[in-house]
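input
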Amino acid sequence: MSSLTKNRPWTAGELDRLPRGWRYEIDEGELVILAPAGHRHARMVARITSVLETFCAVHQGSEVDSGEVGVYLGTDPETLRGADIVYFSPERAQQIAGDIGFVHVPPDLVVEVHDPPEPDIARKVQQYLAAGVRSVWVADPAAQTLAMHRAAETPVVLSDPHALVADPVLPGFAVPLTKLFSRG
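output
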């Protein structure tokens, strides 16, 4: 393919033919090209993933994945988003057991680390929720805030470093916000 532009909607099957080194998503058939994640973004993803993996170790059968996990959010036209972190309850994890490739079951929780150049974070949050994701967290490392979104509810924004991060999607989970942002 000599050009990234075309007259018909993009599909996930075409992404493997695109140049490596970039991140790609499909938003209602439109190709979205994102720069590779930076160091601060990657560290934040690693910290939150570590906290969620500790939670999953206690809650057998649940799963957490990170690193631009491809999640289908719609099929006509295709919407495929690359989530920074996804969490599946034991029930939903069972539905994806053995799957390879992009995820067709909506995660219970999606975590996005907000990078200021990314203009469509609010759109992504709405797409996740509309597709059946139960909770979406948007972590902003620059502002040291965590916005927690759930369908038909006002987002909860945590900014006090000692505030407890808790979510009904993660029964029994409670950590201070500072644990998600600190290097310790």
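quick obs: The chain has one domain: 37-181.
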